[in-house]
Amino acid sequence: MAETLNDYESLAAAVLPAETYDFVAGGSGSETTLRRNRTALDAVTLAPRVLAGVAAADTGWRVPAGVVGGASMPVVVAPMAYQRLLHPEGELLLARAAAEAGVPYAISTLSSYPLEKIAGIGGQCWFQLYWLRDRGVVESLVGRAEEAGCSAIVVTVDVPVMGRRLRDVRNSFALPDDVVAANLVDPVTEAHVGVPGLSAVAAHTASAFEPAVSWQDLEWLRTRTGLPLILKGILDPRDATRAVQLGATGIVVSNHGGRQLDGAMSSVDALAGVVDAVDNDCLVLLDSGIRSGTDVLRALALGASAVLVGRPLLWALAVDACGEALELLRGELADAMMLAGCADLAAAGWLTTGRA
User: Fold this and answer.
1) What letters, b where the CB count within 10 A reaches 16 and e where it falls short, cover 292-316?
2) What keywords are assigned to this protein (predicted)?
3) Which are the contacts of 143, defined by CB distance < 8 A and separation ≥ 6?
4) What percent of the chain has pLDDT over 70?
5) Are 82 and 179 in contact (CB under 8 A)?
6) Helices in 184-321 by DSSP H: which ranges?
7) Rounded Cα gap, residues 229 and 73, in angstroms
8) Cα separation, 275 vs 63, whole angstroms
9) Which of 8, 73, 237, 334 has a beta carbon 3.0–4.6 Å from 316's, enabling a disulfide?
10) What per-residue string of b and e applies to 219-250 under the rule 16 or more CB within 10 Å gives b?
11) 10 Å Cβ neighbour count for 43?
């Protein structure tokens, strides 16, 4: 049994093919931003409150506007592609664990099971949208998400092209035949054709994704769905302000886990500026680098409403321990809140923070 979320990585590495491990673990370029996410989070210090009279910590997350119908903690399972690479049940297993843990699960456009089957698990589901070259497919995906009962659309806005992920290039990484982009019209794609010195997944992204997506496209999407829109991949406060003007319900401050622009600032370093820019006009969530309950508390103290957790849950998926990992995270958060004198999440937002 793992003692921390980080333990799942070594457990997964022992059972996964090396190229699959690299696909999940790797970042873009020299992986500077990948490392920076952890360095920056570790530098955030908290001043605990004492004599607070707290007998128990309530980790429950209650959000208006229908995005979250109550969650056991301020955590969302991040949208992550091709989860059958890690386990034959892939998205179905992780979505089931999220439902049992009482947290939302974000379904990826590139999920390896159809979104309807994942949403049918029965928990709270969001649908993550990559903007495709075929706008008709975009509209169809959004309609399918609505019909399947998803409660929000998460538009990833930081992938005009895929970052150059050198581990995948060196491995000539390609998807195995039984792992497909199940939501797309032609699920067997360039992503399955290995070419020496190239990433087949990057080749598929280049052919399928629209690089010139703009704010006008988001305005068009706003007219096509009544679901809340959450924009994932914002670091600049000016973009956050524009998102609010567009009518976004939420913003995910994210550098895509260090997998897009290498040299981008850490997500946690960008958080305060975005929180100030939106001035409580929308939810702000933090993604990239979260590895513990203390990290969740750090994010809340800096003004985030919640966090997205990605890689640690993929590592747990590889060893059939998704539920265990989510319960471990909830326990860590409760412990951190007790030690900081926080009875509930609102109290966490009043903690004083510093930098080591």
Assistant:
1) bbbbbbbbbbbbbbbbbbbbbbbbb
2) Flavoprotein, FMN, Oxidoreductase
3) none
4) 99
5) yes
6) 200-208, 215-224, 237-246, 267-278, 293-301, 311-318
7) 21
8) 17
9) 8
10) eebeeebebbbbbbbbbebebbbbbbeeebbb
11) 14
DSSP for 13-82, please give it.
HTTS-HHHHHHHH--STT-HHHHHHHHHHHHEEEE---S---SS----B--STTS-S-BSSSEEEPP-S-
Query: Which residues are known catalytic residues?
Result: 256
- Displacement of CA 70 from its chain's centroid (Å): 19
Alpha carbon 84 to chain centroid, angstroms: 17
Q: Which residues contact 338 (CB under 8 A, 6 or more apart)?
A: 54, 56, 57
Helix (H, G, I), strand (E, B) or coil at 123: coil
Q: Which residue type, as a one-letter code, is found at position 346?
A: A
What is the Cα Rg of the chain in Å? 19
Q: Are strands 352-355 and 44-47 parallel, antiparallel or unpaired?
A: antiparallel
Closest CA to 345 of 45, 50, 42, 62: 62
Residue 66 reports pLDDT greater than 70:
no
Structure-derived torsion over alpha carbons of residues 310, 283, 295, 76, reported in degrees to the nearest 10: -30
Give me the pLDDT at residue 192, please.
Answer: 81
Per-residue tokens: 280: 């409580």
Amino acid at 66: G
Q: Which of 122, 116, 86 is closest to 182 using CA atoms?
A: 116
Q: The tokens of 37 are what? A: 């996410």
* Tens digit of each residue's pLDDT (9 = 90 or more) over 251-264: 999 999 999 999 99
Q: Are residues 109 and 141 in contact, defined by beta-carbon separation less than 8 angstroms?
A: yes
Q: DSSP class of residue 256? A: G
The DSSP-derived string for 158-173 is S-SS----HHHHHHT-
**Token pair recorded at residue 15:** 């059972």
Domain ranges of the chain: 7-337
Are 294 and 43 a contacting pair, CB within 8 Å?
Answer: no
